Amino acid sequence: MFVYPSAIDLSTAHLRHLSRELAPRRREIGSRWRRLTPGRQALLALAHLRCGDTYAQLAAGFGIGIATVYRYVSEAIEVLAVLAPTLDEVMVTARSRAYVILDGTVLPIDRIAADRPYYSSKKRHHGMNVQVPTDPFGRLLWASPALPGATHGLTAAREHGIIDALVDADLKCWADKAYQGAAGNVRVPFKGRRLKRWQRRHNTTHAKILCVGEQAMATLKCWRLLRKLRCSTNRITAVVKAVLTLHLAAASG
């Protein structure tokens, strides 16, 4: 296998943040010696999350075994996932905003046709449903745990407690037609073909607001691992939370 220099389109804030979290983790478990320093382990994990590099590629690039790569990446993801904010914490922050935008995405996964619970009829591929609230500027606030791709957006939002949290916080929310009937404070566009002129104008304005929320989806998809997840579905929630933690840490720092 050939090895060549490469680059990761991330700031050093991501690397510093993950390195700082990995060092106390090693002291906590009493790890005496590792093939890689915390900084190199952080770089390894970022290459996997951001670039989607396989374990075999990383093993060749860092000069370690594939099993070691798996342990290092899993440890980094576990450390980051624990630091992800909860929905209640996000709602406290969101109260200072005029409103939030709620949307969902289906992250593609590597599954066969027999795995029907993971098949999204809307997206026409197997995946995991993740709900993403953003602020009025399209900045990512939170990402929900992943559910099978066949789960409807409104069902997922209710199961995660997002709708109830919005009601309790008395926070206005803009969403698409999939969230019809969610709650009184969740604004959705009018449905139907024969709409009045003022309803069409409302839908146009509504669509412009929702377009801003698509920036959060683009933020998630910038992490190439999320474009095609080949790991166990049980690990996807931790991966999403790890990405969320890195994004929020870099944005605040």
Automatic annotation (TrEMBL):
Q: Which cofactor does it need?
A: a divalent metal cation
Pfam families, sorted: DDE_Tnp_4 (PF13359), HTH_Tnp_4 (PF13613)
Name it: Helix-turn-helix of DDE superfamily endonuclease
InterPro entries given in the database record: HARBI1_dom, Transposase_HTH_dom
Provide the DDE Tnp4 domain boundaries: 102-247
Which GO molecular function, any one, fits this protein according to its record?
Answer: endonuclease activity
Span of domain Transposase Helix-turn-helix: 34-85
| Entry keywords, A to Z | Endonuclease, Hydrolase, Metal-binding, Nuclease
Keyword Protein biosynthesis recorded: no
For this protein, the parts annotated as crossing the membrane are none
Species name: Streptomyces mirabilis
**Superkingdom of the source?**
Bacteria
UniProt entry tagged with the keyword Nuclease: yes
